[in-house]
Write a structure and sequence with these properties.
Radius of gyration: 21 Å
Number of helices: 4
Number of strands: 8
Order of helices and strands: HEEHEEEHEEEH
Distance between the termini: 42 Å
Shape: globular
Largest sheet: 8 strands, mixed
Amino acid sequence: MRNDASRLARAPHRLVRAEDDGVIEGYASIFERIDMAKDVIEHGAFRASLARRGPGGVRLLWQHDAKQPIGAWSSLVEDSRGLYARGRLNMSVRRAREAFALIRQGAIDGLSIGFKSERARADPKSGVRRIAAIDIWEISIVTFPMMPDARVTAITPGDGEADIRALAGDIRRAATLFQPRRSIS
């Protein structure tokens, strides 16, 4: 009977170490700016919701899709500029690895909040809605954020690219095992 270490050493896949990759930071919302939906988030709007939920109660999703959680937020803080978010993508999840690669490349960097307005007032002339209290339930990595300045501002460096290249090599090798063989007649 072979020991587990021997079996794992021969495993045909590589593991991406989450402690090396996947940490993202950025502003999920900016205070006192009109977004593309004509909403303005006021200072302090997240305070009560964050006190109730904490960062663990706010999901990190891909493109607002509740079926695609891709990590977890570790810190959500209101500062003088807006809602600052820090979290870790779960590098064991395929979509999280893809999101991380796209962020690293600069192809995507938007952040967007999913919320319910708890206290707001609309200006009938301008149509701008000023939101004083928000129940936030998710922050997504998105292609096009409603708040143009809500962006990922930092990601951790790491060896994820090497692991992704190794995984791609493993996939190519596995694919050759399933190609039909030609017989010589």
